[in-house]
Amino acid sequence: MSISSKSRRDARRRNAPRRSDGIAGTPQIHAQLKGPDERVLAGATYHEGEWTLVLRGEPVAATPSAAMVLAMLRHTAASRHAIGIATRLSVSKALDAAASAEAEAQGRTLVEHLDWLEAERQTRNAPPEAPPKAH
Q: Considering only Cβ atoms within 10 Å of each terminal Cβ, which end of the chain, N or C, has fewer?
């Protein structure tokens, strides 16, 4: 590498526009699932084209699908409800709009699409049917 190419590269870096808010590479929070004590149980972030489901502060699943991350949050809420923990889900307008656009592309409403994703999850996780017994 020549000395002049390094100096040009360094100059480009110095003159590159910078974000003034200081959050250049930080994932954006788009959903929170809170328990009755207002503690965050789960959430969803968006960063570099990917939605991430976060449980207990740890990323557990990532997907390019906004509807899928919303379906995962709904499933988490239903699981908490089944053991008696009331939850409240708040979703950003951006996540809601992205999930709605995905549903519309499939010819469904958002609620129909989320219900379809849940049904697909149950089918995928169902135990295989037993083969017929020979008599």
A: C
